[in-house]
Amino acid sequence: MLDADQWSQLLASFVEEARDLARQAEEYLLLLDTQPGNEDAINGLFRAMHTLKGSAGLFSLTPLVDFTHRLENLLMAVRDGQRQLDPTLISIMLRCVDEVGSMIELIDPASGQLEVDTTHQQQLLQALAEHCGEPSPVALIPVVAAASGCSSKGQLQRCASCEADGAWHISVRFHPDLLRNGFDPAAFLRYLQRLGDILDLQLIDEALPALTELDPESCYLGLEIGLCSAASKAEIEEVFEFIRDFCTLRILPPDSALADYLELIQALPETDGRIGEILVNAGLLTATELAEGLALQGAQPEQPQPLGSLLVEQGMVVAQAVDAALNKQQTVREKRLQESAQIRVAAHKLDELINLVGELVISAAGAHLRARANGDGACMETTGLVNQHVEQIREAALKLRMIEIGDTFNRFHRVVRDVSEQLGKNIRLEIRGADTELDKAVIDKLGDPLTHLVRNAMDHGIESAAERLAAGKPAEGRLILDAFHESGMVVIEIRDDGRGLNSARIRAKAVERGLIDPAANLSEAEIHRLIFAAGFSTADTVSDLSGRGVGMDVVRSAIDALRGTVEIESRAGLGSTFRIRLPLTLAIIDGFLISLGEDHFVIPLDMVTECLEVDGQQLTGASYGYISLRGRPLPCLSLASHFGLPESTEGRRNIVVVSQGRQQAGLIVDHLHGELQTVIKPLGRLFQHLQGIGGSTILGTGQVALILDVPSLFRHLQQTVDAHPADPTQNLPHPDVKGR
Amino acid sequence: MAGKTILIVDDSMSMRQLVKMTLTAAGHQVIEAVDGRDALSKLDGQKINLIISDVNMPNLDGIGLVKAVKANASYRFTPIVMLTTESEQSKKAEGQAAGARAWIVKPFQPQQLLSAVDKLVG
Amino acid sequence: MFQLERDIAAPRLELRGSLTIYEVNDARTLLLEALGSAPVQEWQMGLAQLDELDTAGVQLLLSARHFLHAAGGSLQLVEAGSGVLELLDLLHVAQADARAQC
């Protein structure tokens, strides 16, 4: 039998499967939106709901079962051609699938319970019914006190609905004082018959003593009743309302879980065999189930642990669930095999592996350095080989974390659809570069900024159909999500063909908010960049689409946190492009080691273009300046000055040229130490606001090196460059091009 | 099921009439008493299946009636339904202590009364 | 009012009158008297003259049956009138004693 852990695992598997199914359902629905006749999609959609319902039933997740049952019925009609999926119906169904998704998330992973407020589901079902021109669906919580519709009434036979749903099982044990207080069980029984058909009844007289010991006025009796009824549990309880204090009442609805019956057996005072026999005869459980359940009970430690305790519950229910789950997994597995050979790996396991690989990288580098320091040629060769292998492992490990951005992009189909509807605009989403891979950690954190940018483009960027037509554009607006690799980074673009940024308005708002001096002369690009400033928003009304108070500055911070950058290209009337650049991975870095005096720094290798050697005398010692590189001015930053370190007085200095997109800059450093690869350790909270530092790492020597946050250095440099543009007449220092 | 014999005890004629009409229409036989004392006089050996009694009555109120009925050997097992108003909930406790086991709150629907009767003696 | 009539020749009792919670105490005494002397028998109880029976009465009869079973005898309930029969059916009380068949 399975224990609590295994039960949890099974439940977790179900939740995972359910999430998948809900996602599939959404995808099918979106597909059917554009291809209403797509039979594969219709069948797939029906199957998804059907499977969901079945699985939910195994775990007794009643609200989920009930809801998906309704959806399944509707989809059956669609599948059989009796109903069409028009856009409105699809919209409602999408919300229903959302609701299913929400319910899945509400399943308590520890207890397997699902408690929901059914109001929202009722509303959705109502909307469905109205749209389909049907009378309102029977409420999920039945209210009617109907007389039994049982066709076998009076015949003490199971009717078709009993066969289908089973009968109520009512167990009553009377209090000894019941009779002397003037109550008669017969009266209640007769009243019960009004609610339905009593299919079986057992008078329990186990506790009834023989004549000699009997107190005739006390009640020693009990009843086990099988009732076929459309009534609710509350209505059945109401029959016994006057004697609630004089009996122990247990009511099991039709189709109770096996565990419930076993618990009942345990809870009742008579022998298990006796009650079990009654339940088996009533068809509520099979003889096998009874035997197994009782055997389990026997095997439990002596504690009066109710049979319905978690362990057995799991055991018995899971026995069925396991079979069904195994069967399903078999089919799912076969399907998966057809589609692709993939394995699900727990994210934390992967993280552990990456961590260890990171440590391995450091120790291997350390070994190699030591060999080098010792001048041991043979050892250097060996450790060099080790380093090679470690590099390969590192590559492979990091690749494990890479996932295609396609999944993230695809989610936006739904967002664009919903928001277009909300805004009354006609917008089409195009996705490109879906197979571009990024580190999972990066993708996870990308969702929010992307969403914001997409909504922004839809809200402020793309005009209404009327406006577009008036401007000579097609009525349908285009929104493009694109992703590709460029110079060692991942680039993600959000392009729209809308009205573009309104520079004048941006400038005006910035002045209004005191962000710039009214007299300042800014280039178009500078003005555009202002929208990332804190507290900036050009929306006249706070549209809840982009979120109150959540401005572009939050997007910017999120991207900063990913060691990325965001830039804007916009042309009035034509549209805007937001371009996000991100490092490929957050975990391990290929770096270029440099030093300033005793301090070591690492520059991300993929940003390094070339290295130059320059005569220290030629440098003015200022913190920034220009040098001439192949006839063009290259803005340079003195790292020592930037970090407040003493400027070197050595003759030969080095400049590392770094590039970001089309921008280039030179970093003036003391010594170059070549390439290395190492694990990034994030900065502690205390240091997170350090300008220009994006992390730290431990060198093979054990020394700490700080990793430069090149984008932020670029930004800093940009500010100074803007303030002091290059003077073309100035005679700039010439470096010696050194190469990498 | 054959009709039962029910004793209604209430000093309000309209209440007695309402109950009588409701129960006789359902096939039961109804005996009326105007107060507790009157009710006790009906306990003369005839078969009475159920007593429905108001609480506030002159001469002998509902609580007193309950105690008396419980003390009467031939009627001690007869179920008694008290009719109370919402504000008389404190009486409910008293009645319970005396031996009353069922209550209906006034004003009640005739159907409610019938259901209660059926559940208790049906 | 409850009465028990003993059949001299056979192990049979005729029940008369009412057997409700009001009568069960006295009835139990009478039954014990009648059955106690010869429990190892296949007894019958004629219910034709019983005009009122309630659950307390049924319980008493069942208790009598238990008593007889314990001793090795049995109890059959026979000739029940419609009212009594209705209650016995409602409570699924077997009139014919399964034991007696053995």
pLDDT average of chain B, as an integer? 88
CATH superfamily of chain B: Response regulator
CATH class of chain B: Alpha Beta
Class by helix and strand content of chain A? alpha+beta
The shape of chain B is globular
Helix proportion of chain B = 40-55%
- What value does the Rg of chain A take, in angstroms? 36 Å
What's the total count of β strands of chain A?
Answer: 22
Organism (chain B): Pseudomonas mangrovi
Modified residues (4-aspartylphosphate) (chain B): 54
Pfam families (chain B): Response_reg
Protein name (chain B): Two-component system response regulator
Q: Can you summarize this structure?
A:
The complex is a heterotrimer of chains A (740), B (122) and C (102). Chain B has helices spanning 13-25, 36-42, 62-71, 89-98, 110-121, and strands spanning 5-9, 29-33, 50-54, 80-85, 102-106.
Characterize the structure shown:
The complex is a heterotrimer of chains A (740), B (122) and C (102). Chain A is α+β, with helices and mostly antiparallel strands and 740 residues long. Chain A folds into five domains: 4-131, Four Helix Bundle (Hemerythrin (Met), subunit A) (Up-down Bundle); 160-255, Alpha-Beta Plaits; 347-401; 403-583, Heat Shock Protein 90, CATH 3.30.565.10; 588-737, OB fold (Dihydrolipoamide Acetyltransferase, E2P). Helix content of chain A is 44%, strand content 20%. In chain A, the strands form five sheets. In chain A, strands 15-16-18-17-14-22 form a six-stranded mixed β-sheet. Chain A has a five-stranded mixed β-sheet with strand order 6-8-9-11-10. Mean pLDDT of chain A is 77; it is low at 136-158, 300-329 and 540-549. The longest helix of chain B has 13 residues, at 13-25. Helix content of chain B is 43%, strand content 21%. In chain B, helix 1 (13-25) links the parallel strand 1 and strand 2. Chain B has helices at 13-25, 36-42, 62-71, 89-98, 110-121; strands at 5-9, 29-33, 50-54, 80-85, 102-106. Chain B has a five-stranded parallel β-sheet, with helices on both faces. Chain B contains five helices and five strands. Chain C has 102 residues and is an alpha/beta fold. Chain C has one domain (2-101): STAS domain (Transcription Regulator spoIIAA, 2-Layer Sandwich), CATH 3.30.750. Helix content of chain C is 42%, strand content 29%. A four-stranded mixed β-sheet of chain C has the order 1-2-3-4. In chain C, strand 3, helix 2 (55-71) and strand 4 form a beta-alpha-beta unit. In chain C, helix 1 (24-36) runs parallel beside helix 2 (55-71). The mean pLDDT of chain C is 89. The chains are: A alpha+beta (740), B alpha/beta (122), C alpha/beta (102). Chains in contact: A-B, A-C, B-C. Chain C: Residues 13-102 form the STAS domain. Chain C: This is Anti-anti-sigma factor. Chain C: InterPro entries: MlaB-like_STAS (IPR058548), MlaB_ABC_Transporter (IPR052746), STAS_dom (IPR002645), STAS_dom_sf (IPR036513). Chain B: InterPro entries: Bact_response_regulator (IPR050595), CheY-like_superfamily (IPR011006), Sig_transdc_resp-reg_receiver (IPR001789). Chain B: This is Two-component system response regulator.
